[in-house]
């Protein structure tokens, strides 16, 4: 499905990411773990082609065995949940029109149907209809994060790149987001997950890649990583056992 091959990112002659490689099949989740500044988010931005020209990017990212660099039309099959929900939305535009615009990009529907879909999305998050008239800065980061996840579900992408999708969530909303992502896996969406929450990694990851100082220092299953990684995961708590895995 998706293959990252020898990805390098250089900025001002400094190697931010060195020789990152992994592959992921349909319905799998690869989780990239590591401390702050290890190169996790830079890697995903490089994969999505979101870095400015000041960054030198080498290597390749292939979807369906085709290079994303050479086949830009494949970009429609990849969706990203941005790390910071407060900057992922246009703060000068009300949230309703932004949700509607995203839905219209997925499928062409009559205006009334699109508006109803947007309202239904907010209702699933137990948010009132008036939320449509609010600006992103009037909503909490947690609610914006949940909206991004719900929109990603609607898109049904082949690949979802989720950069810290639970960073602003409390325990309850974190578990809801995890269940939503598990549901996407059951529909064969491949997920590249960035997180510092080990309980989320345990609940979702089929493979784990550990980065430090821009390089891969370990890879394997979650249990292997926790037991053998040289990074300090001593503070890990087995909270993931309490996350419901039912997606029905």
Helix-strand blueprint:
Elements: E1 2-11, E2 14-24, E3 29-33, H1 40-48, E4 55-63, E5 66-67, E6 78-81, H2 85-88, H3 95-106, H4 111-124, H5 141-155, E7 159-163, H6 171-186, E8 190-194, H7 198-204, E9 207-212, E10 215-220, H8 222-228
Parallel strand pairs: 3-8, 3-9, 6-7, 7-8
Antiparallel strand pairs: 1-2, 1-4, 4-5, 9-10
Question: Could you please describe the fold and organization of this structure?
Answer:
There is one protein chain. This protein is an alpha/beta fold and 248 residues long. It has a single domain, classed as 3-Layer(aba) Sandwich (Rossmann fold). It is built from 8 helices and 10 strands. The protein has helices spanning 40-48, 85-88, 95-106, 111-124, 141-155, 171-186, 198-204, 222-228; strands at residues 2-11, 14-24, 29-33, 55-63, 66-67, 78-81, 159-163, 190-194, 207-212, 215-220. The strands form 2 sheets. A 6-stranded mixed sheet has the order 6-7-8-3-9-10, sandwiched between helices. A 4-stranded antiparallel sheet has the order 2-1-4-5, covered by helices on one side. A hairpin with a 2-residue loop joins strand 4 and strand 5. The longest helix has 16 residues, at 171-186.
- Weakly predicted, low-confidence segments: 234-248
Class from helix and strand fractions: alpha/beta
Shape: globular
**Number of structural units classed as domains:** 1
Largest pleated sheet: 6 strands, mixed
Remind me, CATH topology?
Rossmann fold
């Amino acid at each position: 499905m998706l293959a990252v091959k020898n990805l390098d990112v250089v900025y001002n002659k400094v190697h931010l990411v060195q020789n990152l490689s992994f592959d992921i099949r349909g319905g799998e989740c690869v989780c990239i773990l590591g401390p702050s500044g290890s190169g996790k988010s830079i890697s995903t931005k490089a994969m999505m082609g979101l870095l400015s020209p000041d960054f030198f990017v080498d290597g390749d990212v292939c979807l369906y065995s085709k290079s994303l660099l050479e086949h830009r039309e494949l970009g429609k099959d990849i969706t990203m949940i941005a790390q910071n929900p407060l900057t992922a939305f246009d703060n000068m535009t009300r949230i309703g029109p932004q949700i509607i615009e995203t839905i219209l990009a997925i499928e062409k529907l009559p205006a009334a149907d699109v508006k109803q879909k947007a309202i239904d999305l907010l209702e699933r998050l137990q948010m009132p209809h008036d939320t449509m008239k609010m600006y992103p800065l009037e909503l909490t980061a947690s609610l914006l994060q949940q909206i991004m996840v719900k929109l990603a579900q609607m898109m049904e992408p082949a690949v979802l790149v989720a950069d810290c999708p639970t960073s602003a969530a409390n325990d309850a909303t974190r578990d809801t987001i995890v269940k939503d992502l598990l549901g996407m896996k059951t529909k064969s969406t491949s997920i590249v997950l960035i997180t510092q929450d080990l309980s989320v990694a345990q609940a979702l990851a089929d493979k784990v890649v550990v980065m430090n100082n821009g390089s891969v220092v370990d890879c394997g299953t979650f249990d292997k990583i926790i037991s053998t990684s040289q990074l300090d995961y001593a503070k890990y708590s087995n909270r993931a056992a309490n996350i419901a895995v039912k997606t029905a």
